[in-house]
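Pilot study result, target chain (84 residues):
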Amino acid sequence: MATIPLAVHFDGDFVLKLLPADSEHTMDELAAAAAENSVGIHVPDQPGRTLRVRRQGDAQPFERSSTVAAAGLGPTECVEVYFE
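Predicted structure:
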């Protein structure tokens, strides 16, 4: 397990945030950690909707069970988190 700092843009938030991510966390765990810094603060909660993660600029999200390491995300790489 290694800590990888990721830049996170949460859809609807106006601030990029640096998030220390564990290399073994799944995309669901990464999205939940990102939500703690945005949902209910700068972004309204959307109960019943699923959070998804994609590499900035990619059209398709990562598989929800994929890990940070398996996705090949590197230090300070930017990911986008959004409600699906």
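One observation from the pilot: The mean pLDDT is 96. A full batch analysis is planned for the follow-on phase.
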